Amino acid sequence: MIRELHEKLISGEITAVQLTEEYFANIAQKDEEVFAYLTLTKKSALEQAKKVDEKIASGEKIGIMEGIPGAIKDNICVKGTRTTAASKILDNYVAPYDATVIERLKESGAIFLGKTNMDEFAMGSSTEKSAYGPTRNPADPERVPGGSSGGSAAAVAADEAVWALGTDTGGSIRQPASFCGVVGLKPTYGRVSRYGAIAMASSLDQIGPITKTVEDAAIVLSVISGEDKFDSTSAQSPAKDYTNYLTGEAKGLRIGVGKDYLKDLGPEVKTSIEKVIETYKKLGAEVKEIELPYSKYALPVYYIIMPCEVSSNLARFDGIKYGMRAFDHKNTKLGFKPEDRTLIETYLDSRKYGFGEEVKKRIMLGTYALSSGYYDAYYLRAQKVRTLIKQDFERVFEDVDLILTPTAPSPAFKFGEKTTDPVQMYLEDIFTITANIAGVPAISVPAKDKVSVDGKELPIGFQLMAKWFDEENMLRAAHAYEISFRSDAENKIK
What we know:
Elements: H1 2-11, H2 16-34, E1 37-40, H3 42-57, E2 69-73, H4 100-108, E3 111-116, H5 150-157, E4 163-168, H6 174-180, E5 183-186, E6 206-211, H7 214-224, E7 254-258, H8 267-282, E8 286-290, H9 298-313, H10 343-354, H11 357-370, H12 376-396, E9 402-406, H13 422-426, H14 433-438, E10 442-446, E11 451-453, E12 456-458, E13 461-466, H15 471-484, H16 488-491
Parallel strand pairs: 2-3, 2-4, 7-8, 7-9
Antiparallel strand pairs: 1-3, 4-6, 5-6, 5-10, 9-13, 10-13, 11-12
């Protein structure tokens, strides 16, 4: 889609201003129901689009992302733009600097339509936990779009953006991509700079693209990836054009499938994934059964490590440096005034009213696990098991190039269906969190066969995980599947 729009801009069939206005018109028409956006940046978007048109008119060459409208998850800093992480504690926060990925996108000439809704501080799997209200799934407004990057996935699925950025700590790009029927890519840890992303769990977080097609994901990844001196965890990986690896072929690739990943799926989801596996066999890939014995511990490991890092990272939101400063007005009945508060009381009031329930829950769990007497029993032990999970991947990747799993155990569920049972909500990440724990790249691609639920056809995605820094083979395999069922007319657009 990006390439097609790029060619239309060059030929003069459409201008960047017209394209940008078209997407803002889509937003005006659809977003009252979908609620993908928290902030729109129409003025700056049109100004950037005008510059692209002037460049084209003067005969200058433009890059493939120039003039292409996209959306940014609201936990990624864009200078001069409100950045809330969907939390009331940052309701009035305007970022004073650009994240590295934003700098690179600006250099590419991409256009930002606005900031998208999300679960508060990226803590959730449904975008029901946003302090500003839930995003709805364009495939069925009665259902969630997934989370935490639900706004970004919904924006792309509803044609409210050509591309979007999300963040992925345990599946927050891939799971909403699956629910909304789009492509979501989590790069290798360190492939894309985290500088300027509001941290949730620093050893797990990654920024990545959400797009309509695999090629679009490769295009955006080519722009945002590469080493960054501002991120100490950034890997020394040179920037490259990932579209060069989209050959349309999967022949010769070795794909591993874990039998345990399929046994507890619903019949329709299982059938859809089995058809994906058969497609790869027809494309010439070798499909092998694999075992990842320590993966069964991934969920408890994740829900110890992640809250511990949350507890540490969110300590900075205290009502002093930035964000809201709250005062419990019940105290006025006792004769207290805001200026009478101690420092600790300021902290407590600001965090009490600024954070939502899910955020408070995870802070408390993490603080407990890190506390004296419990650190060794919980956090240290979880880190040891994390190493065993990573070793599982190292062993398996000696025999296969890729691992194929469902992205989520089910299609999108209805609002409120899992909010009363946190464990059921956390289980939505069962297939995705291992990639974050091990640090490997992973992508969710829409399966050809949708799932019928209550008379509606809902999208479902499958996931490919690759060796560390082997986005090339992962994208190659994903692209080969994607084009295997396109029409002849669509195959011409590459």
